[in-house]
Write a structure and sequence with these properties.
Elements: E1 2-8, E2 13-19, E3 25-29, H1 35-44, E4 48-53, H2 59-62, H3 65-72, E5 76-77, H4 83-87, H5 89-96, E6 115-118, E7 121-127, E8 136-140, E9 145-149, E10 152-153, E11 156-157, H6 167-178, E12 186-189, E13 195-196, H7 197-203
Parallel strand pairs: 3-4, 4-5, 9-12
Antiparallel strand pairs: 1-2, 2-3, 6-7, 7-8, 8-9, 10-11, 12-13
């Protein structure tokens, strides 16, 4: 599997491209900003975007999803429980003095544990409310890979002081939905460096 993870935008959101070497179909996760860079990497690997997955509807993760859809035709997938955050996108932009992006309701709101596949890549949604009400992760078991959004970080957890945040829900999501995954699972957070489930289970100060 092809994987490119790179920070985009003012807040350094980790955008990830997952692509299959044979079919050249791809999923793009959290295209917050920097569409030219995303398109350059897609072209480098000769990938065609089939799905755009958003882990949660904070501006730094979703701002350029509509632009990427208009270019590629790929549907946007995220949890409709985050629509209240979409409705306040102008407020979110004001927090960081950013232009207000065009953000629309999802083309599809997936069920918990619903498959999110393209040819050659088989993932599933894990709902992890807490950072936002609609936060989700993408688990790719064949690759021992978890795209965790802002639910779990290396040595940390997602903040819960913004609208829709709930500390109790966040910790339950991590403990009940993520920590049972195999220790070797590579975790790509929404910001910052990667980690593993085993390392976080053993050493994350918010979880011990």
């Amino acid at each position: 599997m092809i994987r490119e993870t790179f920070p985009v935008g003012l807040l350094g959101c980790n955008c990830t491209i997952l692509g299959d070497e044979v079919s050249h179909e791809a999923i793009v996760l959290d295209p917050g900003y920097d569409i030219p860079r995303i398109l350059l990497l897609l072209a480098k690997h000769k990938l065609t975007v089939k799905k755009i997955l958003i882990t949660h509807a904070h501006i730094d993760h979703i701002a350029s999803a509509q632009s990427l859809k208009e270019i590629t035709g790929a549907p946007i997938i995220y949890n409709q429980a985050d629509l209240p955050l979409v409705a306040m996108m102008d407020t979110q932009a004001g927090w960081f003095d950013l232009a207000v992006p065009t953000v629309l309701p999802p083309d599809h709101s997936p069920a918990d544990e619903e498959a999110v596949d393209v040819a050659g890549i088989h993932g599933k949604v894990i709902y992890t409310p807490g950072h936002t009400e609609g936060s989700l992760c993408l688990y790719v078991p064949d690759e021992h890979l978890l795209l965790a959004g802002d639910t779990l970080f290396a040595g940390g957890v997602g903040r819960t002081d913004l609208p829709g945040g709930d500390t109790g829900k966040l910790l339950r999501s991590i403990e009940e939905r993520l920590l049972p995954l195999p220790d070797a699972t590579l975790v790509i957070p929404g910001h910052g460096p990667s980690t593993t489930i085993g390392v976080e289970r053993a050493h994350n100060p918010f979880l011990t």
